[in-house]
Specification:
two-stranded antiparallel sheet, 10 strands
Length: 284
């Protein structure tokens, strides 16, 4: 992994897997410079709301990390008085974290400044590069309806990995909340909202992404939090639909209304995960 931020480099690199600690290269005005199209890998809200122009996208994974809701957020999904919790990556030598990579044109001068503000200045994340692996290499028998949008010339099947820009929050940043009992994290998520919407939406959209794009994969931390949030919302008679806002449509995406058949499938998939005695409280 290549580290792009000059501040607290020693402390942050001690937090990362040893095989990813490398020297800075290609820094121009404190930002990475690319001569060719480059990839950006997202594992949180970028999966369903990138917010920048991109040429192609593909679902895949990075190794050596696990996703955790240990980073605080006081702008997008919380406030200074009630910070929300969003995802970051923590070292896990056996870990695999799924997300989505976006291919950005080399002459694009808007994506990185936008993400620098969104992820670093407001969110407290730092910029790295990491090896990204496409889903087809992990599950060679991809379903024909996969939403990976790549052609063989840009990401050939024979390629095992590509470098991608990655944003990670480390414990030294001002918004860090760290580990906590899952019920406490779930309750905090249920109570918080920010300028971009409720903290619940962030969690549920990410869980939906995983189910839709990588149904074969497991993310115990993510799905345990989802189950707890749904349970607490049910107990408190909170309608989760009122906490959702569909802003997933980015500049490179078109919004499509779901068909009645898709709505039925989605409802069934959700209901199948909830005990019968809880269905009357689901409110979704």
């Amino acid at each position: 992994m290549e580290y792009f931020d000059n501040t607290s480099e020693r402390d942050s690199q001690n937090f990362l897997p040893a095989q990813f600690r490398e020297k800075n290269e290609g820094i121009v005005n404190d930002r990475p410079k690319f001569k060719e199209p480059f990839w950006i890998f997202g594992y949180g809200s970028l999966c369903w709301n990138p917010g920048f122009e991109y040429q192609q996208s593909v679902t895949g994974y990075v190794k050596g990390f696990s996703r955790r809701f240990w980073q605080g957020n006081t702008t997008h999904r919380g406030t200074d008085s009630k910070p929300g919790r969003v995802a970051t990556l923590v070292e896990d030598r056996e870990g695999v974290t799924w997300g989505k990579a976006f291919l950005v044109a080399a002459d694009d001068h808007t994506a990185l400044p936008y993400l620098t503000n969104r992820e670093c200045q407001l969110g407290g994340y730092r910029t790295y590069t990491v090896h990204f692996h496409p889903k087809s290499l992990y599950f060679p028998t991809n379903h024909p309806h996969s939403s990976n949008h790549l052609n063989s010339s840009s990401f050939p099947h024979s390629a095992s990995q590509k470098d991608a820009v990655l944003y990670i929050a480390v414990p030294e940043n001002r918004h860090w909340l760290g580990a906590a009992p899952l019920p406490d994290i779930a309750k905090q998520i249920l109570e918080c909202r920010g300028a971009s919407g409720s903290n619940v939406e962030y969690l549920l959209r990410l869980a939906d992404f995983m189910r839709e794009e990588v149904p074969e994969a497991l993310d115990e931390h993510l799905f345990s939090l989802e189950r707890l949030v749904r349970k607490f919302a049910c107990d408190m008679k909170i309608c989760l639909q009122t906490l959702m806002f569909d802003n997933r449509v980015g500049p490179s995406q078109e919004k499509e209304e779901p068909s009645q058949e898709e709505e039925k499938v989605s409802s069934f998939q959700f209901a199948s995960r909830i005990p019968d005695k809880k269905l009357r409280c689901v409110n979704m």
